[in-house]
Structure formats: C-alpha cells, structure tokens
Design brief:
The protein is α/β, with parallel strands linked by helices. It is built from 10 helices and 13 strands. Helix 1 packs across helix 8, helix 6 runs parallel beside helix 7 and helix 9 packs antiparallel against helix 10.
C-alpha cells in the first residue's frame, strides 16, 4: 500500500473521537498528532487513543514530521482560519461542518485550496449516509419523484453542552451548523442551487445570544419544496428527522435507517456514514482526485445559507433574481 498516511487531528471533543474511531478502521492511516484546547484534555485524549504527540499549539502539531493531512474538529468560528493556514502549509484538509460561519470565509477557503493544489473536504456527513444516498440515486434514476422534503432538527441546548452532554467552550449555530446539514442535502440530492428561500427565527437565548428556534422554507425551480423546523428548546428525542414525500412513496430517514410509508425497513448499504466519509478523504488523497464533499462542491450550500440568514435578518422573502445571481457566482 506504500507509506503510512500521517494525519494531524485538531479537537478532542465528540467529533474528534468519532474521527479517531473511523480512521482506525482504515489501513495505512495513522494519527500522529492531536491539537487540543487545554493541556489536560490533550494528554488524556492522546493517552486514550495512543497518539504519540499532543499540543495546545495547532501549528506545532501540523508541522510534525511526515504529516500529510489535517482533520479539523475545532469550534466553528475557527474553521476558516485554521483551514486556510493548513492549506498554506501544503496539507490536505478535512474540516468539520460548517466550513465557516459566513459566505465570504467559505469563498476564502475555496480560493486557498485552489492556490495550494491540495484537497479540501468538508465533513458533510449526510452526503455519506446510506438512506440519503439511496434517495439521491432513485431521483437520478427516475424511479422516485420528490414533491416535498421535510426536515425536523431537534436538540435541548439551553445550556452550552455538546452532543455527549459535555461542556462546550464555544456556542453552536442552529442555522450555520445544523441547518447546513439539511440545506446541503436539498442542494446535493436535487443538484439544484436555484431555490427561492424564506426563513424566520425566534427570540435569542438570554445568555447564549443565539436564536433557539428557526423555520426555513425553500422552493426549487424543478418543483420540489423544502420545509425545515429547528429547535434547541426541544425536550424529547433529538437529532435530524427526514421525510421524503414523493409521487411513488414516502420515506422516513433517521440517522442511517430508512422506512417506507408502511414502516418497513428499506434495505440499504450498511456502511456507517462517518466511516464512509473518512475513507473518502483518505482515498481522494491517495488517488489525487476531488472528494465527494470538496469545499468547492459545498459552496452553493454556503450561498444558500447566506441568503437565508439575510432573509431572517431583513424579515423579507428572498427574490428569484437573488437566486439567479447566487447561481452565477457559485456554480
């Protein structure tokens, strides 16, 4: 297989652990350094996962001998600067969703990737989930005609905790992080960037300073509708719940499982999404090709999020003309 691919991991939180577990299943890949926010968390994480070097200085970790690629699972507001820095050092990068918290920084990442000639992949996990891949496949084959994609994304985040209930050092974004997953799916599944968009947001949390409830609606020029309700106030089951309402059938998706209108399981490829996406990153590097969720391919999603965010801020419906201008910029 050749030389071992040496990877620097940044972040010791929930997503850092998920990537470690996925990378351990890939032959010829080794995490040789981990960057952490505190010395204590880095030491504990490195010992647990047998990573030979750790530091609170990301650049020191990236500069370790032989490091070829970097995986960033750091706070969202650090993604853009860290990605650009790693690319400038000649490293391939996989950055957790969202790649940035605004369109301008996303464009800066794409420009940096082009200048470096290195791979820059965004961890859009839903693109690698078997149910969503199956929906996309059926639409492209013409065996499923989508009318309406309905998304419910629920968490209970009135205190600043991560998905494992651990304290966070940063505040999450309901739209630019969690909404990004589903907005990207709509664009990716339909191969459509020209949506009319509308959105509204509820009151901001008094201490977190973010809106805790959002509603987003989009209409594709191809016809299908997209409706999404999101909340950090929900008590009960949490996560992303998807319903694909089509001419032939209605499918419900949760994580890596899909059922039909009768509640029967739809047979799927059993590969976990997290495993598939890290295999894709390593394979793209080895094969010298663009990965499925390259930063360039995700730019239309960031443009849609930017329009939705502006609509929410301005309290008005996005115009078709705006959608046309966005498509000319990002396609």
């Amino acid at each position: 297989m050749g030389e071992t691919m040496k990877i620097c991991l940044a972040g010791t939180g929930a997503m850092g652990e998920i990537h470690v577990k996925a990378l351990q299943k890939i032959a010829g890949v080794e995490i040789v350094a981990v960057a952490s926010r505190t010395e204590e968390s880095g030491s504990k994480f490195a010992e647990q996962w047998k990573i030979p070097f750790h530091s609170t200085d990301l650049q020191r970790c990236i500069d370790r001998p032989g490091v070829e690629a970097v995986i960033l699972t750091t706070p969202s507001d650090q993604h853009a600067d860290q990605t650009v820095m790693a690319l400038a050092k000649g490293k391939h990068v996989q950055v957790e969703i969202p790649m940035s918290l605004n369109l301008r920084d996303a464009e800066r990442i794409v420009d940096a990737a082009k200048r470096s000639g290195r791979i820059c992949m965004v961890t859009h996990t839903r693109r690698f989930s078997s149910p969503h891949r199956e929906i996309r496949k059926r639409i492209r084959e013409g065996t499923f005609h989508l009318h309406h994609m309905v998304v419910e994304t629920y968490f209970f985040r009135r205190t600043n905790l991560n998905m494992h209930g651990q304290p966070r050092s940063w505040v999450d974004s309901l739209l630019w992080h969690h909404g990004c997953h589903s907005i990207d799916l709509a664009y990716w599944i339909l191969d459509e960037a020209n949506f009319e968009v509308w959105g509204q947001q509820g009151p901001e949390h008094p201490s977190l300073g973010i809106p805790m409830d959002l509603t987003v609606a989009m209409k594709s020029r191809k016809g299908p509708l997209f409706s999404m309700a999101m909340s950090f106030n929900n008590k009960g089951p949490f996560g992303g719940f998807y319903r694909y309402i089509g001419e032939e059938e209605t499918y419900k998706v949760y994580r890596d499982a899909m059922t039909d209108s009768e509640g029967k399981d739809v047979p799927l490829d059993g590969t976990p999404a997290f495993d598939r996406q890290d295999v894709e990153f390593a394979s793209a590097i080895r094969e010298g090709r663009e990965p499925e969720s390259s930063a360039q391919s995700c730019l239309p999603t960031m443009a849609l999020l930017d329009r939705i965010d502006r609509v929410m801020q301005e309290g008005r419906v996005g115009q078709t003309g705006q959608a046309r201008r966005v498509s000319q910029v990002v396609m």
